[in-house]
Here is the input.
Amino acid sequence: MAAGYALAGKRVELLKDMVGSLSRVAVLGNPGNPPHVPYLRETERATSALGLAIRAFEVRGPNELPGAFAAMADWHADGLVTLTDGMLFSNRDRVAALALASKLPAVYPEAEFVAAGGLSSYGASLPDLFRRAASYVDKILKGAKAGDLPIEQPTKFELAINLKTAQALGLTISREFQLRADEVIE
Here is the structure.
């Protein structure tokens, strides 16, 4: 299994660590994104292992976001995990604002969601991935064939939390959890 898919399950565990009373996890994803199914499958595995109820809420575009959050409220979700997706990433400000307005503690795949006001994230470091991609470009420009270069998995992962958002949600993030974080926004 690719490292990225396993991270989906880790995000559920982190959400449970932050929200001890967690019981109903909403999963926001885009079924038009090819890795949607494996990410969702891994999230389902993790929620099942923790005895949590799960329901997927699918959005194909930004106009579907408000309806998805309304449906999460109708289902009485008490936590949210978003799946890795470019459309969600490009609408991260809106996704984080809708989660906060819905009083949903959420964990996202990229730290940029936390900078946008999201509660927490766990995933590969995008700046590190960009630096590593630059080394590939350098090798190709020096004559290496792209097909001969090895496929690499991410090696640097980051946990970020936003204490302002936690406070707005009425959550207390333990000092121990904060010490695990690579970035804490106060």
In short: Strands lie at 24-29, 53-58, 79-82, 106-108, 120-124, 157-162, 183-185. The chain is about 50% helix and 20% strand. Residues 18 and 177 are 8 Å apart (CA to CA). The first strand starts at residue 24 and ends at 29.
